Amino acid sequence: MEHQQHDEIKQITLYDVASGLKPQASSPSTWRARYILNYKRLPYKTVYVSYPDIDALWIRLGLSPMDQGPNRPKTFLPVISVPSEDGGPPSVIADSINIAIFLDAEYPDTPRVLPPNTRALQIAFAQNVVISTLAPAIFPFILPRMPATLDPRGAEYYKSTREKWFNIQLDEYYPRSPEAFQAQLDKIHGALDWMVLLQQWRRKMNGSWDPLALRLQILVSARCSFG
Ligand SMILES: N[C@@H](CCC(=O)N[C@@H](CS)C(=O)NCC(=O)O)C(=O)O
């Protein structure tokens, strides 16, 4: 019993976006953190937070808003809280890439998520491929469908923020004509070509890297998603 209590105290908390789905976990951003925790086999519990409550969570956890560039939230999930070994305050980490860096350093006996010396590549990839190319290509397919997957307060928040940020009406954003649909698909193919290139490069440079770690690396690199 005592042992159990000890384990509970040590457990990491993953803060995830609340949804109306079962199971609730659906945000690609928070899935990156979940993949990392699962890959390292670290025990954690999940706390679901509705979009409009994320600001208050950040204040409660003592986090300062982070500038992610224009039209992107300054407070967001995933966040993890990792209890300290010595009874001090927990380490609270936001942003999937920071979570990967922190957990690789904090738990060196678990499989590494980020290959050494690849930070520059990952930032270039995230900025130029995922944020600038892939995200705008998939947004018209994803964004209009998001509110239906969320809890009612989250849905309202999501619709109003995205309509403001991207200057769109969510209901009219889906590419309905065959031409518009095909044009969007072509954009996605362009971004996927980059992913193939990255994988070929990796094979040449370091064929021995665990393929699952590579997938995680790409997911973590893909810092921007539908947020
Ligand atoms: N760079 C962040 C992006 C996180 C992000 O944008 N998360 C979205 C959920 S998919 C969010 O919490 N958005 C809050 C909001 O829209 O106010 C990461 O990789 O962790």
TrEMBL record:
Chain ranges of the GST N-terminal domain: 17-111
InterPro entries, sorted: Glutathione_S-Trfase_N (IPR004045), GST_UstS-like_C (IPR054416), Thioredoxin-like_sf (IPR036249)
Highest taxon listed in the record's lineage: Eukaryota
Coiled-coil annotated residue ranges, if any: none
Gene3D superfamilies: 1.20.1050.10, Glutaredoxin (3.40.30.10)
Protein name: GST N-terminal domain-containing protein
Native source organism of the sequence: Serendipita indica (strain DSM 11827)
